[in-house]
Amino acid sequence: MEKIQNTVQAIVFMLTITLLISCKNENTAIETSRPNILIAIMDDATYEHMGIYGCDWIKTPNFDRVAKEGLLFSRTYTPNAKCAPSRSIILTGRNSWQLEEAANHWAYFPTKFKTYAEVLGDNGYHVGYTDKGWAPGVAKFDNGSERFLVGKPYNEKRTDPPGDFISTNDYAANFSDFLNDNKVNSPFCFWFGSREPHRAYDKGIGIQQGGKKLEEITDIDSFMDSL
Q1: SS3 string of the chain?
Q2: How many domains are there within the chain?
Q3: Which domain holds residue 175?
Q4: Rounded CA gap, 204 and 195, in Å?
Q5: Structure pTM?
Q6: Residues ≥6 apart with Cβ < 8 Å to 26
Q7: Backbone torsion region of residue 82, taken as left when φ is above 0, otherwise alpha when ψ lies between -120 and 50, otherwise beta
Q8: Rounded to the nearest 5 degrees, what angle is found at the Cα of 211, between the Cα atoms of 206 and 214?
Q9: pLDDT (tens digit, 9 = 90+) per residue, 89-146?
Q10: For helices 2-15 and 83-92, what crossing angle results, to 10°?
């Protein structure tokens, strides 16, 4: 099971990192020497359920486009297949054995370790995130004030999802708020922390809302063979 989680989470995390090199307004000149950065993370998604990897019963056109126009990894692994530790690794570039308490689930993130988002913020980047950033755990400065490891949160806008257990966060609207908050047109770094597909099971939603049919699923996860 550990091998399964390592493969799935690492490939998903690594594949969904996208660089937005060009993002300019016709009437506004913005800095182009440093790229805008968008990091998109799906929570507990399985690489075998992406179209680019051969899945034909789940449609992932945007993911597939990023993969086709960028890089698609097939041999990528995470050294720690848990929510908070794996995110600590991404944010610091350190292995889990180098992160002390931050290598745990429901951890206290040591103040001695600085994240890339904090470094970018200190160097002129407009930094923020929506929904699930670094979690679960506690991140505070030495004085006890709250520390935002992936930047300022943008979670005000809500939406009405098609299922009971899908996040009500309006990801796109909150990203727009983030962009509109960039008053001086600085290069930006935004963390899109989707909570899907890690959610409670809503029986029948795929058939009722997605138009799926059971007979479309011709192959249960090959991972089942290793259980």
Answers
A1: CHHHHHHHHHHHHHHCEEEECCCCECCECCCCCCCEEEEEEEECCCHHHCHHHCCCCCCCHHHHHHHHHCCCCCCCCCCCCCHHHHHHHHHHCCCHHHCHHHHCCCEECCCCCCCHHHHHHHCCCEEEEEECCCCCEECECCCCCECCCCCEECCCCECCCCCCCCCCECHHHHHHHHHHCCCCCCCEEEEEEEEEECCCCCCCHHHHCCCCCHHHCCCCCHHHHHC
A2: 1
A3: 2-226
A4: 20
A5: 0.79
A6: none
A7: beta
A8: 65
A9: 999 999 999 999 999 999 899 999 999 999 999 999 999 999 999 999 999 999 999 9
A10: 40
Cα gap 51→64, rounded to integer Å: 6
Are 83 and 104 contacting, i.e. CB atoms less than 8 angstroms apart?
no
Q: For 9-34, how does the pLDDT look when each residue is reduced to its tens digit (9 = 90+)?
A: 433 444 344 333 333 344 344 455 89
Residue 108 C-beta-side C-alpha neighbours within 13 Å: 7
Cβ within 8 Å of residue 212, ≥6 positions away = 57, 206
The percentage of the chain sitting over the pLDDT mark of 70, rounded to a whole number, equals 82
CA-nearest of 29, 28, 67, 32 to 47 is 67
The chain-wide mean pLDDT, for the chain, equals 83
Q: Which two tokens stand for residue 56?
A: 């034909």
Least confident of 8-17, 45-54, 115-124, 176-185: 8-17
The alpha carbon of residue 165 and the mean position of all alpha carbons in its chain are separated, in whole angstroms, by: 18
Half-sphere exposure of 125 (CA within 13 A, CB side): 24
